[in-house]
Write a structure and sequence with these properties.
The complex is a heterodimer of chains A (about 80) and B (about 190). Chain A is mainly alpha-helical and about 80 residues long. In chain A, about 75% of the residues lie in helices and about 0% in strands. Chain A is elongated, with a radius of gyration of 32 Å. The termini of chain A are far apart. Chain B is built from 9 helices and no strands. The longest helix of chain B is centred in the C-terminal third of the chain and has 25 residues. With about 190 residues, chain B is an all-alpha fold.
């Protein structure tokens, strides 16, 4: 029975309620305070992605240098 | 300090955020206002949602619909706040979890020309009726009827099966009718 209800086409009242609720989409809102706060926050945010890539590059470079040093010592002997 | 999560430079993330998310800022605040009793709470919720969207912008899949993605963040932020409010009932958001007392309908009312009748209600009256719905039904109507999401998209935002969405829409419309009835009678929009 519940499934019957779900498969019924929307009634005139259903359509009217949907249509009245859709009009709430145009209710005006004052976004100025939210805009100001978000602009400040997004301008302040750092660049972690770039920083983390830099750290990875440094780490790889360091490891390569260490391996080269060990190989040089082994070959020298 | 918080930054964008992965992959994008700050400049790219900022550009993407302002291209994709910024046009929906008023929708986010409007929905937050419908779900919050106080303007300050609504603005906090909208700010939190938009900033989370900025931080997570690199995880948004280009080419998909941004609105369900953004409204999922809004919904999750709202749930977090509701849980926090329930854990600390001294905060005013505790009002959000109260179940509505639906008015009894003693006599069948005539809803002839329902569209004309419903257009006779003010936005405030319709919003007040929406707020008295159970939260999950209110969210479903907000996503589908107010924001115009498809039922499948709404089911993804809410994390529930499609059948449950359809059922909630049906029940929600019935409840709206009941909730608007007393005002409709007072204003002689609905007749016995």
């Amino acid at each position: 029975m519940a499934e019957d209800i779900l498969q019924d086409p929307p009634s005139e009242l259903d359509r009217a309620i949907s249509s009245r609720l859709a009009k709430l989409r145009t209710v005006p809102v004052d976004v100025s305070r939210v805009e100001r706060a978000i602009r400040e926050k997004t301008a302040r945010a750092p660049e972690p992605a770039r920083i983390s890539w830099l750290r990875i590059a440094w780490a790889i470079g360091g490891i390569l240098l260490l391996i080269a040093a060990i190989l040089a010592i082994i070959l020298w002997r | 300090m918080v930054g964008t999560s992965t992959g994008l430079s700050h400049q790219d993330a900022t550009r993407r955020f302002y291209d994709l998310i910024w046009p929906h800022r008023a929708d986010v605040l409007r929905l937050a206002q419908f779900m919050s009793w106080r303007q300050a709470d609504a603005e906090d919720l909208a700010q939190e949602t938009l900033f989370k969207a900025f931080v997570k912008i690199s995880s948004f899949k280009e080419g998909t619909n941004v609105k369900p993605w953004l409204l999922t963040i809004l919904r999750n932020s709202w749930l977090d706040r509701s849980r926090a409010a329930a854990a600390h009932p001294e905060t005013s958001l505790s009002d959000l979890s109260t179940e509505p007392a639906l008015p009894e309908v003693e006599q069948p009312a005539q809803w002839t020309k329902p569209e004309d009748i419903l257009n006779g209600f003010s936005d405030r009256q319709v919003i007040d009726a929406l707020r008295r719905l159970p939260e999950e039904i209110c969210w479903t109507l907000l996503l589908i009827d107010v924001e115009g999401l498809g039922q499948q998209e709404a089911s993804e935002v809410l994390g529930i099966p499609l059948g449950t969405v359809k059922s909630r829409v049906h029940r929600g419309h019935g409840m709206m009718k009941v909730l608007l009835l007393p005002t409709g009678r007072d204003r002689r929009l609905v007749h016995e």
